[in-house]
Amino acid sequence: MIPHAFIEDLLARVDVVDVVESHVPLKRSGSNFSARCPFHNEKTPSFTVSQTKQFYHCFGCGAHGTAISFLMEYQGMGYVDAVKELAARVGMTVPESDRRQNKPAGAGEDLFGVVARAARFYKQSLKHSDRAIAYLKGRGLSGEIAARFGLGYAPDGWRALQTEFDDYATSKALVTAGLVVEGNEGRRYDRFRDRVLFPIHNQRGDIIGFGGRIIDRGEPKYLNSPETPLFEKGQELYGLGQARAGIRRTGTVLVVEGYMDVVALAQAGVDYAVATLGTSTTPSQVRKLLRQADCVVFCFDADAAGQRAAWRALEHSLGQLMDGRRIAFLFLPEGEDPDSFVRAQGKDAFEALLAKAQPLSEFMIHELAARVDMGSAEGRAKFLQDAKPLLVEIKAPMLSLVLRKRVAELGGVSQAELDARYGIKMRSGASAPQRQVAKKPSVLRHLAEMLLVLPELALLADIEQFRAFSSVAAPEFSQAEVDLVLALLEIGSDNPNVRAIGERFRGSPLESLVGSYQTAGVLAWKGRELDREALRADFLGAWRGIEQRLSKARIDALLQKSRTGSLTNEDKALYRQLMRGGGTVDQAPLT
Q: Does the reported pTM lie above 0.90?
């Protein structure tokens, strides 16, 4: 990992305004800068960049972060590449990662390093394989596009990776990462052999797995990495990092079935395509897609398998739909896939078809109607019955209303009859919602937000006291909140002037929690200079809440102990001390 001290020094020298402005035109707005958000389509600027806080935030889509985060999201860079890019701007040299130096290649906790090392090996192997290069050229791919997607080649041998990993025979990480298969009697062999490899990246740009395409005929045609601690097929999308710029430009994301489809489309200039990873589209993937663009188009073959895949994608999309967003389906001519079509017909012909993609609503109704005889009462009844479970899944209020009207009309009933008979209602509820009482943020969240804005506040706290509190923390606090506050206290106490404290948590289980809390903390002080004294007073007030909770927990424990008659003189003295300190509890005599 790159040392934290280097990251802090780098962000102290880099101006986030300069970084953002090199990609997005900014206008001064008071003490901040604003623009239309580069991460989603909008007409009114809601994207703010703060020079004083070195932070950006979009009030529309929630995008936020530092200069590093911006390059990762906007340009699809990995963490290390983004750091290197910023370092080059200010003439700094990124220290070599100590991951390989300090850990053996097969260490279980270093799966990212093992997979990245394998990816480099496969990439180098491609350069030395005339056969693999000829295959890619035959598919119309250039060296530039192969480099952009990091394509590689797994040599035709049972243990080719052994030349890269000296501990091949014993490494647990190679097996855990899905690179090596352990067979009978402990015999090992490479999972990928004689295949062109497509590296699969996560949101941060780390390689987490591979898709392997066989060069000649054979089965399976595609072989994917298995599920691993790094790689969950239903959560990821192939090519998303490379497609982000195209998605922002067009406002559209095209979903195809194969890795080669994505790469071939990019070669032809259709640079906004991604692929699912050998499984049907999942709700999680649909949510991720709808965060990327206003329009999502699923592209499938016109055969029966393509129709089934499209229907599954529709079913998994219904619960994710939002008014103002569009999901559509494109079916290519029989015998064609995106790769073959775009190579034969070109970008313009492909995009002409894309413009005629069938909206989800039309596809759903057409498919339901095609399954029955709409000319008979029985067929219409079946049509209405089949539509019911689909309609109740739709959360988007206006789309739900329009679709229910259309289904009722085709079924020969009124919308009111449809809703009443089948219990179909908008998920959000047609009646006025019940008044909700706002839930006050927990004291731990409040502390975390303040520590993320001003780490030096940790000097006002007693870490040992908080450790004692964490061991008796009430159920109202999640373990993640406890862990986060403790980590922030430790970091702030050790280095009160730490910069970009949120970067310390990148890649950790607390990363998403830090992101949301940091945004809330920054927004709480939006539009004014940081008032340290006000923050100190607020922090001390919240800390007193921790002290009171700890005192109460200790008093409760002493009272419980007294009921067993096992109190010591020290316990009694502690009880008197706690009560003098203002511990609030139903007082009871100690026995």
A: no
